[in-house]
Every structure is written in C-alpha cells, then in structure tokens.
Design brief:
By secondary structure, the chain is α+β, with helices and mostly antiparallel strands. Helix content is about 40%, strand content about 20%. Bound molecules: manganese (II) ion (MN).
Length: about 475
C-alpha cells in the first residue's frame, strides 16, 4: 500500500525589535550576562503592567504582507496558562482567539503554494539550563517578541517541508522582520507529520517534532517520521499522537509526551493589554515599506540566469540587496559573477562580509558592455574589487593598473592591423584568406592581439581585417 505523508509546520520567528514585546529592556541578549536584560514586567513583579511594543506590531504587519496574508484590523491578546520555572508570570501572553495575521500563502521556488492558516504575536519564554542536581534560570529571553506562523497541512514531502522553512526564512529576513539567525534560535520549527493510505479521505494520527532550528533537521526529522510511521502501519501497529524530540546526532525522533498528558491552558483574555486596532490606511502605508522580496527578484531576473543560480544567490540577502541597487542591464552579468565566486571560489563568507559599492559594480558592468573589458578581464577586475587594498581606487583605475582595458578605438586598432599586415610572416596567411580560406583569420587576429599586448578588442580587430583583405 502507498502512504501519502501530510505535513503542517508551526514556526516561531523572533522579531528584530530594539526592545521586548511588553517592556523597554533590550531585546538583544546575545553575549550578555544571564538575567541582565530583564524588567519587573518580565519577572512578573506583582503590580507590573505590560505595555505593547508598537514596533513589534509594525513588523508583524510586514511579516503578514510578506506571506500574502490578510492583516486583521482588530486583534487581541490572551493568557495561556502553564507553570514552568522559565515563565514567572505563570502564563504566556499570546493571541489565541484574535490573531493579527489572517490567512495567506507562501509560494515555494517550485511554484507550489503552502497556505498559511494564521500567524500571531506572543512573548517568548525564558531559558533553563540543566545540570546534574540543579537547573539555572535565565530570563533574558522572556517576552522577546515572536510571531508564530501556522501553516495548513499542505506539505506532502520532506523536501517541500525543507523548502517551505527556507522560503519563510528568506521572507522574514528580506522583509527585515527578523535577523534570521538560526544558530541563535531566531527561527524554530515544529513539524506535524501524519501519513494516510493513498486515496484516504481522513488524515492519519499525527506526531509533532518540536523545536527544530535548521532546514536540514526539518527535512531529516520529517523523513524519519514518515519512514517510522509507515513501518508501524505496515506491521499493523497504531501511531500514538504525541510530541517527539529530534536528535541531530542520532538522526532519530523519540517520544516525549503523549496526548493523555496534554495540557489545559485555560485561555482567557489578557486584561492588561487593550486590543490592537489598526486603520487600513496605516496597514497600507506600512506595507509599502516592504523592500524587494524573493518573488520580485524572480520576476526581475526571470529565466535570464542559468539553472539554480538565482536560488543560490537568494540565500544571501545582503548580496541581493546590492544587486537590487545596480542598474538593470548589469544585474545578470553581476549575478553570474557573484555566483561564480560563491560556487567556485569557496570563499563565500569572506567575500560577502564586505561587498563592493554599487558605483564600482555599475562601472564594471558598463566597461563590460562597452567591450572595454573582456569577460575574463571583467572577472579579474571584479575579484580585485573585493580587495580592501585595491577597491578604494575605483573600477577604472584598477582595470588600468592591471593593463587589461581593451583597445576599441578603431583608428588606433587600424594602425596596429597595418603594422601586422606589413610583416612578411603574415603574407602567406593574407594570400590564403583572399583565396577563400576562412579559418586563417584566426591566425591574423592572434598576430594583432600579440602586437597590441592583448589589449585589442578581438571582434573589432576581425572586422578591420576583413575590411582590409576584401
Ligand atoms: Mn507559540
């Protein structure tokens, strides 16, 4: 029997605000002392009053628009109760009944669409670190602003699960909603997987693999769950609805808690925070602040780039932003140059730290289009633009110093051609060409190139030779 997998994904995205969701302390705790970015609101001192961060609302609007979602003009917060040492309030402030972001969709590079059910704003929990006989609590992360994006169960392969998560990452980073630092948990994925016999009208029992923090582990965990569930069903066993953990080291998921232990969160409206009421003008106005998104680049470059080139480049938002700044006619040339550096030179990180200016890149494209630089020379100058010692001098000066600017001046080229044609060693080739032997033109062009020390534009040279020998 053939089983069809069905996958839905929940993704928590940390918003790139300066301060926390409900207080005015620093939202960036990277490298800071534990419990140093904490306000009385975060540790729930009695009498504290949370106050909503407007910037988080603005970023949520951008996130929603990036996913083609409806923005709800009225949304509200709820309390989700649970007791855990990393959450001193005893509840999480989240949007359960009235989320800010409504339905929409994310389009994958393959053209498939994954529907978004909704996305809501909420505060993060703190962090526990466990030791042998004790645990330590760090509240720096408490009420860091998150949006939780809930997809419909629209995904039917581990590969598409991977592609969906990656596309979400791109959307959030391009939109400026999140720094997208996966290593520091800026985006975390919960993957729901079930399988059902082909043609079945109902979905199978699902399991949820929680807290994955890379696209690769999403793909591997989904693959593992599909195989595990298939094996269970094939041997006549039942799948238990449960939460499972993933280990990158073992490549396996393991059961953590089953449905019987499912919590009752006792949701209730959050009384301390008034509803968010947005005007449609404000939403429209904020939406216009979305910069060029992956879909815009796909439209812009269309089929002009070979194979996967554009998809590879799209993983580098800074680079794409730079390409967005250069003139359209040079964008394809530069995309190919960047791709060759990223793919072949294997120095991507180093190269991408410090990109050349748009001005230098535009000049490079212009020199190439004007045939002042051959394709080899263009790449040579391009690589020199990454050299901090060289780049200050500007594209043209670098090309001059390298001595690789092509001679296009027809008058100057004619003088060189005449010198070559006057040489006795070219006499036979000239006679052969006149007698109809086409291919000796290559030899003559080569002689002119030599005479010009490689600076002549070969196609211009050929044109002059043909004129003179006809
Ligand atoms: Mn959540």
């Amino acid at each position: 029997m053939k089983y069809i997998p069905t996958i839905g994904i929940e993704c928590h995205v940390q918003l790139a605000t300066k301060t926390k969701l409900f207080s005015e302390v620093d939202n960036d705790a990277r490298g800071k002392e534990p419990n140093s970015c904490v306000s009385p609101v975060d540790y729930a001192l009695p009498g504290m009053l949370p106050r909503l961060n407007g910037e988080a609302v603005r970023l949520a609007i951008l996130a929603g628009r990036a996913m083609n979602c409806k923005i709800n003009l009225e949304s509200r917060f709820d309390r989700k109760h649970y007791f855990y040492p990393d959450s001193p309030k005893g509840y999480q402030i989240t949007q359960f009944y009235h989320p800010i972001i409504g339905a929409g969709y994310v389009e994958l590079p393959s053209g498939k669409r994954v529907a978004i059910e909704h996305a809501h704003l909420e505060g993060d929990a703190g962090k526990l670190t466990h030791f042998d006989t004790y645990s330590l609590v760090d509240l720096n992360r408490v009420d860091t602003p998150l949006i939780e994006i809930v997809s419909m169960p629209d995904i039917h392969s581990a590969k598409d699960a991977h592609d969906y998560c990656k596309e979400l990452w791109r959307l959030m980073v391009y939109a400026g909603v999140s720094y997208g630092d996966l290593y520091n948990g800026n985006m975390r994925f919960d993957v729901n997987v079930s399988i059902a016999p082909e043609g079945a009208t109902e979905l199978g029992t699902r399991t949820e693999v929680k807290n994955l923090n890379s696209f690769r582990s999403v793909e591997r965990a989904a693959e593992y769950e599909i195989a595990r569930q298939t094996k269970l069903l094939e041997s006549g066993e039942k799948i238990i609805q449960e939460t499972r953990g993933w280990s990158d080291a073992t490549g396996k998921t393991t059961g953590q808690r089953s449905k019987e232990e499912a919590k009752d969160y006792r949701y209730m409206p959050e009384p301390d925070i008034p509803p968010i009421r947005l005007s449609s003008e404000f939403v429209e106005d904020e939406s216009t602040k979305l910069p060029l998104m992956p879909a815009d680049y796909r439209k812009k470059f269309g089929g002009k780039l070979a194979g996967d080139t554009l998809e590879v480049l799209l993983d580098y938002p800074e680079l794409m932003r730079k390409l967005g700044e250069v003139a359209d006619e040079g964008a394809v040339l530069l995309s190919n140059l960047f791709a060759s550096v990223l793919l072949a030179e294997e120095k991507s990180a180093e190269y991408l730290n410090d990109l050349p200016s748009a001005e230098d890149l535009n000049e490079l494209c212009k020199m190439n289009l004007d045939k002042e630089l051959s394709s080899t020379a263009t790449k040579d100058v391009f690589l020199h633009l990454f050299d901090p010692q060289m780049r200050g001098r500007g594209t043209r000066t670098i090309a001059k110093e390298l001595g690789i600017i092509q001679e296009n001046d027809m008058g100057a080229l004619e003088v060189i051609v005449d010198i070559v044609l006057a040489k006795p060693e070219t006499a036979k080739a000239q006679a052969d060409f006149k007698a109809g032997e086409e291919k000796v033109i290559g030899f003559l062009v080569g002689q002119v190139m030599k005479e010009s020390h490689g600076k002549a534009n070969p196609s211009a040279v050929q044109e002059i030779l043909r004129k003179k020998l006809s």
